[in-house]
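FORM 12-B: Structure-to-Sequence Request
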């Protein structure tokens, strides 16, 4: 698990963290998990919170860093740049790319699923604000018709009410 920085384009220098399993040699594709952290969207926060659970999966795991919030255009563009660098640098099984996010990251995961439904095999927004958050500018939910989704949300969440996930589903 290492801290890296985007190398090219307008987001050069933006940090991200990637976990590469010990058995990865680059000659066979591995599944990838993209994990969007909550709060301010810091890569280190996601890696520290989720490394124990995701690091033992045998998958490549990337923890991007938001530029503002996950749903801001700059964060979307930064991930697209990171995506291109990941594809150039790793042998990724493109049929097994999974997206998850917690809280603000869950809100971003829902949006990104609508933007790139063909990029992900499944998406799990965890305790995100869901569609009620995007009321003024709703994402293209019609893009989600064939994408497996898992919504998890505790009913004791003090920040984002669980009804946000229920209404989204």
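FORM 12-B RESPONSE
SEQUENCE OUT:
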């Amino acid at each position: 698990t290492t801290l890296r920085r985007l190398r090219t384009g307008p987001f050069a220098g933006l940090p991200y963290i990637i976990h590469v399993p010990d058995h990865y040699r680059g000659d066979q594709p591995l599944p990838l998990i993209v994990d969007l952290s909550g709060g301010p969207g810091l890569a280190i926060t996601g890696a520290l919170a989720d490394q124990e659970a995701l690091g033992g999966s045998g998958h490549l795991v990337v923890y991007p860093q938001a530029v503002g919030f996950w749903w801001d255009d700059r964060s979307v563009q930064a991930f697209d740049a990171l995506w291109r660098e990941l594809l150039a640098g790793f042998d990724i099984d493109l049929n097994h790319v999974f997206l998850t996010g917690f809280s603000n990251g869950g809100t971003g995961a829902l949006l990104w699923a609508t933007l790139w439904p063909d990029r992900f095999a499944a998406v799990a927004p965890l305790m995100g604000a869901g569609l009620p958050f995007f009321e003024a500018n709703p994402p293209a939910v019609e893009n989600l018709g064939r994408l497996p989704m898992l919504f998890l949300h505790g009913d004791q969440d003090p920040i984002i009410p669980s009804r946000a996930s229920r209404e989204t589903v």
